[in-house]
Amino acid sequence: MKSQMTLMNAMNVDLRNMMENSNMKIENKTDIKLKEVREDIEEKSKHSLDKIREVQNTLTKTSSDLQSAKSGINNRLNNAESRLSSVSSKLTSLEREQESQEDNFDGQISRLSNRISKEEARKVAFSAKLETKRSHYGKCEKIIFDEVVYSHGGGYSSSTGIFTAPKSGTYLFTFNVQGGYNNTAHVGLIVRGSWTTAAIVQGGPKRTGGNAGIAYLSSGDKVWIQTYNQQKYYIWPGRTTFNGILID
Question: Cβ–Cβ contacts within 10 Å for residue 194, how many?
Answer without folding.
Answer: 9
